[in-house]
UniProtKB/TrEMBL annotation:
Species the sequence originates in: Terrilactibacillus laevilacticus
Protein name: Helix-turn-helix domain-containing protein
Domain Helix-turn-helix: 151-195
Transmembrane annotation, as ranges: none
Amino acid sequence: MTATIDREQETLWDTVKFLAKQQDIDKAEAVLKATIEKSLQLLNLYTPIVSHLRFSIPAEQFLNELKHLDADIRKKISRDITEKTYEEILDYIKMISEMTEDPQVTNKKMLASILFKKAKQDARVRRKTPTQFPEVQIEIDEAVKEGEKPFYTTSEAGHKLGLSDQTIRRMCESGKFIGAYRSEGGHWRIPEENFITTREQDIKGNGILEHLDKKNQEEGDVDEFDL
């Protein structure tokens, strides 16, 4: 799965360069935006602000640097994250910002959006009452017993996507998740293939968010912004 993702990302970066050489700037910008959005999703750092930004297509050398940095970060995250990895992530976000009209403001807003997402996820976890946790644990245990293929419970999927359990259940009922089904206990099971990132990537991504949060506190608070 990782090799496939790497090839897809490489193809997207190369497509941006090809369209830029053909002077098809509008399509190049659209593909660049999609490439960045997917890249941040894979790092569990997705921010909706990207879809609202206007990008200028940089020189090929700059695109190559972005492409290689993107691949290098994903490679390191899949193995072992170090302090250097976090620095590269901050450099990556900064380079993305440099392709916009106001790099400094964009960089600040992207970091604010990423940290705001983490804060909302943490708040959802804190709001759970103690009586809810046993049911969640039972769902997880059932999912493990049902076979080798990894599945998500509605609680896990809700936390992953920043949605409520009720919303996830409605999505299951309407067929939004491929292969989702009810267990013998009546709980929904959602195949891992429905999501871009794996559990391991989510755990490491949350570690990245915590580190960015720490950096933000050290450098001063950044206010959330209106999209």
